[in-house]
Design a protein that fits this description.
Length: 604
Amino acid sequence: MCGIVGCILKVGSVAPLIHDSLKRLEYRGYDSCGVATMDRGRIYMKKDSGSIDEVHARLNLDDLPGRIGVGHTRWATHGAPTQVNAHPHLDCKGRIAVVHNGIIENFAELRRELEEKGHRFASKTDTEVVAHLVEDYMAGGLGFVEACREAIKRLRGSYALAILCAGEERIVCARKESPLVLGVGADGMYFASDIPAFLPYTNRVVVMEDGELAVLTDSGYEIRRIDDWSLVSREPKLIDWSVDMAEKQGYPHFMLKEIHEQPRCLRDTLRLQPVYLDLMAKFLDRAQELFLVACGTSYHACLATSYLFSKLACRGSHPVIASEFIQNYGNTLGIGSTVLAVSQSGETADTLSAVSYAKDRAATILGITNVVGSTLTRLARVYVCQQSGPEIGVAATKTYTSQLSVLTQLAIKLGMLRGKIGHVEGEELHEWLWRIPDITAEILDSREKQVMELAKRYAGSDKFLFVGRGINYATAMEGRLKLLEIAYIPSLAYAGLEDHVFGFVDGGTIAVFICPNNNSRKVLIDEMNLLRDVGANIIALAEEGDVEVAEVADDVVWLPAMPLDLLTPIPYIVPLQLLAYYTSVERGLNPDRPRNLAKSVTVK
Ligand code: M6R
């Protein structure tokens, strides 16, 4: 995955602005970067491997001339992260510059064809074919925009593309299956993979759709369908994310900032328009068969949701990891199937494949996502935005708790619709949901220091075990994912201890128990004892004042009493997010940038 950004200003120098915008896209990739500008009929370019700061320190990205430019921050998919493979990519004469996010599936055959015609390639990337294709069509007599259109028609795969041409006061952008947004500013036109990139400059946003090409000038944009060249009329929407929301606000890392944003995000989720939740509840009610499909953290939200639907609404459902969905259920899908897909980005390739497959077989598609205008929102019959605001840290934190809050509201609605929850009970549950933001704030205020100390003490451990039962099996899985993702400590998650676990455990093992006051508590205390006997150090998350837990655990993180087990996943995940964060920091790692991982997995 990569991030692209660019701008065409009315006056002034574009390079510092592109550099600044690229920094806000680093969560999309950070192994190499580059900027190209156009000035007085010439393309200027700087690019190299390394983070944006490293490349800027070496090359000074800010002194490229001109008021038109494009930039790229890369996460390699084709070709190693080297200087030559960094974007932008140029044609033979250095007159066309291209930045790209996505994968061009047929690049090898296009490259062969172009090489046979005499084009010389510099890189090993799939992207470079685009520059040479445009060059080739222009050499054949087409104008810049027409050549771009013809070149793009030849591409198979996914792309968000932006193309500069020497002597042209325009930028051509195109999109298929990779996110691309335009920003309409008073000082010029912007494009980017994601809104935060240009948010300091404009909040007037146009979301491009698949199969569209846009021509940007310093005073506006024109969007056309690539296939029939019909004009698309789309007005900008005002985005109410502040610039502050997209920056670190004084926290050392985005992840910590986002953990602390949870009380506010949770409040926002409770201000959702009820109409879409009501509509979604109706679809869920009438589904013959219901699948909850997602990847990673969003899958853990689905796992928790299956308990919520079952217990609050007597609604059976299958939580499925998206990559397994077609294999496991492909043959059984039909008009009676409903897929509720959960994806923060709305762009995760496996989730979208599962959804498209189900949609082709007449299944009803519902979506929960954080990105309005994402592919998932276009595939879904009904979607609900989870209202988390942009999440920059690769590790999902606030988006997980927001998903849980939205899905709990949905489960309550479904339970009421199906007559499984009475009005009074429904209102009580809602009141509790409204208390959860304050409870979360209190946990952050009162427990962060303790968790930081635990992380200091245990950061050197070589294995962790997370245990949680019932709905908190999802919490155990998510706690484990966070630790594995950003601290790289081998970890397991179990709903109940199985015999083979005892072989894994030794004196260096940290066993984390999610142990609220519910009907699994006794069993969990027994299991803590068993693990303690074989040498594990026990950390328990338990309800304030639980003496029996305190007797057996080495450390207890006390959490407020909740009226219902089903409401515990949000407060109980918070200390585990902090544990992962501080453990990563203790180990000298950067929690915002786990190795070999990007925020959104848009290719399979
Ligand atoms: O955007 P999505 O919710 O579809 O992303 C799914 C996973 O890729 C994502 O949750 C990933 O596992 C996170 N980095 C976990 O912290």
